[in-house]
Specification:
Length: 339
């Protein structure tokens, strides 16, 4: 027990540093700088980006790559739309108050520029591996672009570790918790089922992953948006007041946890930014790995598609989650789910 307590304390300190103000300032600050450098491209080109991602979709077979723009987008969304949009938003609002959602919006809007830049580099510096498939991502453009192979290796190692800490373990734990609470099914059984299903998809390679996510992820998002949309429509008259409430709370926050003790603005910002980054992963380097496999001759087209991931994830899905929590009054219950 002492060992577990010590391990928990160490992990807590690492997490506090990783999601602390310095790192968040670097991530979001980069997003603001890129927004300025790219002249607000995420706003002026959003319509065209959504067209490429959701309407054009199919690519010419002679273009290099393994999966379509749409499949690359869905592969990236499969890792972001989920726990971060549900338990993550609930946690941010419970601790930082409803105003945390406002700071999630800010993070998402500037994060779109970061996501664009990541994808441009991923496609530009990708290469064909020994199996004839495209490989790319931060470890490639750090090694080749910055000419720092050692730093690319460091990123790859930490990314693999993080895939468990903020990815697989968090997602599977939340799923197991929800299934146990709803259907009284043992987390062990849920874990085994998830392991088998994940192996069946992942071991098939990027093309198999693209096919599966291209089919399942749109269904998942549509079902979630439909459910949340129904609740919002039922309470549509209260939506304007809820939006005003969110903006006011961003600068004069009230936390749901701790007997409604007043939450500081810094706490609201920190929770909103941290959960926003956790949800859309802008700047974390995971999405560019999927973007590098897209069928395209130019980095720009895939980069435009990639930035819609952050828009869909944070601006649409997270907003709907936050509105549901606020409109139903559940934000003040202190329940967050396990994230």
């Amino acid at each position: 027990m002492d060992f577990l307590n010590s391990l928990d304390a160490i992990v807590g300190k690492i997490g506090a540093f990783a999601w602390g103000p310095p790192m968040l300032i670097l991530l979001v600050g980069t997003g603001f700088w890129l927004t300025f450098a790219l002249r607000g491209l995420q706003f002026t080109k959003l319509g065209h980006a959504l067209y490429l991602a959701l309407i054009k979709r199919k690519e010419d077979s002679d273009e290099p790559g393994d999966i379509t723009h749409f499949q690359a987008l869905m592969t990236a969304l499969s890792a972001t739309v989920g726990t971060g949009n549900i338990a993550g938003v609930a946690t941010a609002i419970a601790v930082g108050g409803p105003g945390a959602l406002f700071w999630m919006w800010i993070t998402g809007l500037v994060g779109m520029a970061t996501k664009y830049a990541e994808a441009v580099l991923a496609v530009k510096y990708r290469e064909v591996d020994e199996n004839g498939e495209m490989s790319g991502g931060p470890m490639y453009y750090i090694s080749k672009g910055l000419k720092m192979p050692w730093l690319g290796t460091v990123f790859a190692v930490f990314a693999a570790v993080a895939a468990f800490g903020i990815g697989n373990m968090v997602q599977s734990n939340s799923v197991a918790d929800a299934v146990e609470a709803t259907y009284s099914i043992s987390p062990l059984i849920t874990g085994i089922v998830l392991m088998v299903c994940t192996a069946a998809v992942v071991l098939g390679g990027i093309k198999n992953i693209g096919r599966v996510t291209g089919f399942l992820v749109p269904i998942m998002i549509l079902f979630y948006v439909a459910g949340a949309g129904y609740i919002i429509l039922v309470n549509i008259a209260d939506v304007p007041a809820a939006l005003v409430f969110i903006v006011k709370q961003a600068f004069n926050p009230t936390a749901a946890v701790g007997g409604f003790a007043g939450a500081s603005i810094m706490l609201a910002i920190r929770m909103g930014v941290a959960r926003g980054v956790f949800s859309n992963e802008s700047g974390l380097g995971s999405a560019p790995i999927a973007a590098a496999a897209a069928q395209t001759k130019t980095p720009i087209s895939q980069a435009l598609v990639s930035m819609t991931q952050t828009f869909i994830d944070t601006i649409i899905v997270c907003t709907m989650t936050g509105l549901v929590l606020i409109l139903t009054g559940l934000w003040s219950s202190g329940d967050t789910g396990r994230s």
